[in-house]
């Protein structure tokens, strides 16, 4: 794999992993206790996804994470072909 290849969104996510994990565990505990995380919109209420909430809080773009993963797999395929 190319040594020059960087994945900035993954690096951003890695930098907050420990703190994010603790908060995520707590939020999961709340949901497991039956206390929901709900967004009240104009005409309806909807459940909030914990992963999405944490990504938003830490300014991690999950779409970019997916793009970087695809790029990583492409790099691995090139290396192993």
Which helices and strands occur, and which strands form pairs?
Blueprint: H1 8-15, H2 17-32, E1 38-40, E2 45-47, H3 50-57, H4 62-80
Please, could you describe this protein's structure?
By secondary structure, the chain is mainly alpha-helical. The protein has one domain (8-80). It is built from four helices and two strands. The chain has a two-stranded antiparallel ribbon. The N and C termini lie close together (11 Å).
User: Main beta sheet: strand number and arrangement?
Assistant: 2 strands, antiparallel
Low-confidence stretches: none
Total number of helical segments? Answer: 4
The total count of strands amounts to 2
Helix content class: 55-70%
Oligomer: single chain
User: Which outline best applies?
Assistant: elongated
Strand percentage: 5-15%
Distance between the termini: 11 Å
Number of domains: 1
Q: Residue-averaged pLDDT, rounded?
A: 92
Q: Please give the radius of gyration in angstroms.
A: 17 Å
Structural class: mainly alpha
């Amino acid at each position: 794999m190319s040594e020059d290849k960087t994945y900035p969104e993954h690096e951003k996510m890695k930098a907050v992993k420990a703190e994010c994990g603790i908060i995520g565990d707590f939020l999961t505990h709340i949901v497991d206790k039956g206390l929901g995380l709900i967004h009240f919109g104009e005409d309806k209420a909807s459940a909030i996804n914990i992963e999405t909430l944490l990504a938003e809080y830490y300014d991690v773009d999950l779409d970019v994470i997916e793009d970087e993963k695809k790029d990583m797999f492409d790099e691995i395929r090139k290396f192993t072909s």
